Write a sequence for this structure.
């Protein structure tokens, strides 16, 4: 059976980690979340890395993790929202991975992020709704290069099922 990695990209709050965990179970793959891996390696939260060292240090972490995971197979990889927008990261992870981009409307994203209470330093601003729209606009082209999976009004199981169908159909 093909053990090519499955790589999930997309904006914060599109469900990469939730859907990724379900996919990993279905495929019998290991699940990895790049944000969690960085936190485990660095020993600090993402918010602390951003605050104490700046975004560039976090992006260096992402590049190292992308290189490392690209050398492994049989993984479902939920990537941080910007990781795959870096050409180098996309190129190494794309070599041994099938990439899916989860999408959601700004309203859906805002609601999900409020629900999961996660600390996203980039959205720790006075008007997160506007910032989501602004960031989505600047990233539209980058995300647009990958196969799009719409997640609005769908359960994580439905989304995972859709992706599985594509993976299995393409075997
Ligand atoms: C980021 C997304 C976050 C995390 C960091 C930066 C981004 O990951 O990597 O806060 O630039 O989009 P999630 O997409 O898992 O929230």
């Amino acid at each position: 059976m093909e053990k090519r990695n499955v790589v999930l990209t997309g904006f914060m709050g599109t469900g990469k980690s939730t859907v990724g965990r379900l996919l990993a179970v279905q495929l019998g793959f290991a699940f990895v979340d790049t944000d969690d891996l960085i936190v485990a390696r660095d020993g600090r939260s993402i918010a602390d890395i951003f605050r104490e060292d700046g975004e560039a240090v976090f992006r260096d972490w992402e590049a190292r993790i992308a290189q490392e995971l690209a050398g492994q197979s049989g993984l479902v990889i939920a990537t941080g929202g910007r990781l795959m927008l870096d050409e180098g990261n996309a190129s190494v992870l794309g070599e041994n991975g099938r990439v899916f981009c989860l999408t959601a409307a700004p309203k859906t994203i805002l609601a999900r992020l409020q629900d999961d209470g996660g600390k996203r330093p980039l959205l720790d601003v006075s008007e997160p709704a506007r910032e989501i729209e602004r960031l989505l606009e600047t990233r539209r082209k980058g995300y647009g290069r990958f196969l799009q999976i719409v997640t609005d009004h769908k359960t994580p199981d439905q989304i995972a099922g859709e992706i599985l169908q594509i993976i299995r159909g393409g075997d």
In short: The first strand starts at residue 5 and ends at 10. The radius of gyration is 15 Å. The mean pLDDT is 95.
